[in-house]
Model the fold of this input.
Amino acid sequence: MGIPFEALIPYGVMLGMFAVSGAALSKIRHMQNGDKRPRYSVDAWDKQMMDRDRRLTGFLRGQTDSVKAPPGFELSNPWRVEPTFT
Amino acid sequence: MAAREPRFNQHVLIDTTPMPSSIPPVQEVGASSAPLLSASYFIGARCKAYNDDFMKCKTDANGRGEIECLKEGRKVTRCAAGVLEDINKSCLEEFRKHWTCLDDNNQQLWQCRRLERGLNKCVFDNLKLEKTIPGTPENEVPVHLRKKQIFAHSLLSQ
Done:
């Protein structure tokens, strides 16, 4: 007596939909991280270094090993402006 | 400054006024986080005196360090840029492989020890700089010299 595969087709469809959406989200996350694995456990130091990378290369995960900074790098560190209370 | 309440900030201001011409300009270091982490121990080996000077100046300045320690800071920047330039000239391939590995692994040094050994050997041969971890107890093997890295994800990269 064979297994009733027609009854299992809906489960297969559900599993396939989970798999496809999971794979698509994973691919999007991979692409958003500059085709690299995403960073985890990012603390304030890592945030600050990634911000510096963005000022150096234009991308949050961009890396460069040039010795000289691009022109304008010295002046691109922003001041964080706070709301004033009058 | 330390006792002020933090407030959220959404707006940034980029001030493009250049520094006054009385302050000698210095070329900023252009390496981003992964190459800098990779070269950090070699920068420490060569520039220890300048770095210690700068740190001492900042602790002694009691909050005014940004303004008063510019001279020491220039020395630190020039020394670090010098080390990076030497590494780029002599060991570029191993350096690039190591920092690419670090970038793939969340900037964790213990995942990339195999490539680090190659880089350490090349830098020691060419530049005579050796990586030491300050503060290792005397009777223990330093972590970067151990055979087995207990937290590494894969056995291949140890």
Remarks:
- Chain B touches chain A at residues 7-9, 11-19, 27-35, 81, 84-85, 88, 95-96, 99-100, 103-107 (CB under 8 Å).
